[in-house]
Design a protein that fits this description.
Layout lengths: L21 E3 L6 E6 L4 E6 L3 H6 L2 H22 L5 E4 L16 H6 L5 H16 L9 E4 L8 H11 L4 E6 L6 H9 L3 E5 L5 H7 L9 H11 L6 E7 L7 H10 L4 E6 L5 H6 L7 H18 L4 E2 H11 L19 E4 L4 E3 L13 E2 L5 H5 L2 H7 L15 H4 L4 H6 L11 H16 L31
Parallel strand pairs: 4-5, 4-11, 5-6, 6-7, 7-8, 8-9, 9-10
Antiparallel strand pairs: 1-2, 2-3, 11-12, 12-13
Helix pairs in contact: 4-5, 9-11, 12-17
Bound molecules: iron/sulfur cluster (2 copies).
Amino acid sequence: MITNAIGTATPFVNTGAGPLLIPLEINHPSHLAVVDPDTAFWAIVRKDRLADLIAGSNVVETYRQRMDICASEMQGLRFGLKPSAVYFNATDRCNLDCSYCYIPRDMRRSGEQMSEARLLESLALLRDYFASHMPAHRRPRIIFHGAEPLLNFKAIRAGILAFEKQFLFGVQTNATLLDDATLQFLTDHQVSIGLSLDGPTAEITNRTRKGWHGPGDVHESVIRAMEKLRGYPGYSVIVTITRENVAQLTPLITLLHSHGVPGCLLNATRCTLPGAREVRVADEALADPFIRALEYNDELFKKTGHKMVVANFANILLAILAPTARRLMCDISPCGGGRAFFALAANGDLFPCSEFIGLDSFRGGNLFQDGVEAALLSSAFAAVTRRDVDHINPCSRCAIRHYCGSPCPAEAHEMNGGMDQIGAFCHFYEEQVRFAFRLIADGRANDFLWDHWDSADGMETIFDLSGAVTAT
Ligand code: SF4
Ligand code: SF4
């Protein structure tokens, strides 16, 4: 029995210290969900039994007994994590000029390139930092991220060779520089590879992923890489959903399936910079095509036996089914930026997340001059790590706020006017959560999740903000 502040036993839900259980319409013919917004506990209940549940039932009684555990798990996830990954920009430069890139154009055109010596020095400093709090058996992740990391592959190669016993490595690449020798090296060294593709045809991919002087062969390069990577389990493809491809998600799923892609992300464009906002899909227009693509992906799975997990949606399912097993860290508040991971720019500057590279006020210090600990304690990082969904209007009264987290702080700050503002895709999150609950109600959730997600082997968190690392 739960007691209230003065120790009185509380037999009811929704008053005093009793459990808070809010009914949630999930657009299911016979069931709805009840959710405790504070702990993210939930139950699926038949619509005609809701009154019985609220009046007292086994579900409520079981939850009463587990309420403290649920609350402390959520507290640990939200406030108890330490970094275990770095998004490492070995270069500021990119050979492409994609419409929605979060790195400012002048940086991508002529920014810094880290020397091999500096890259090795960085990895040594990061190794020492992680050794201070991570158990020896757990390797932190280094994800070489963009700009385009393969512009500095010689230095990256040296880093992987020197530190492969200390780190798990990943590379997020546009694939245009991924020649056979580079690919062989990366797969020989079990480096996770993330590719980016925005369309089922070159014409559609080229609308957003393009060179500085015209389309180039971006689409063909990715298709070639997917063919070469067929059968390699450690790779994934990110699709960035924009108004240029939102009507093409189903053919895109067909294309990825036909190449045996093991996992993908269907990410809504992050709206941090103005260029990205020009190609964004309106919040209300995203959920329908996205859910149709997920359903079609499931149909293909049933037909072919090949499961391609859409990681960003799978993560929402996990946020409901097993909050602490979630793998990506955007849909929790505070988000993973500056908390579960941080980003390193090519000149050694430290940011809470790659999304903030280029926004000087979020620079928390420099790896070589100040070190990681100082950056983590900086006011620049605190601005992100203190952004709390419990203090954002209207999220603070939203029943699904711990499945959503109101991402992203960079978008909230740059697009909506402040860290205390809502994120960019509220409606999209609401509909994804309703769909996730429908799948759970119908016993279909496992089709959309990684195999073995509920076993010890399948639970490694990868803190993958934009697909740089593939599912383990
Ligand atoms: S929500 Fe935004 S700032 Fe936070 S981890 Fe995701 S991309 Fe980075
Ligand atoms: S963004 Fe929308 S769905 Fe997410 S927590 Fe806020 S109100 Fe809820």
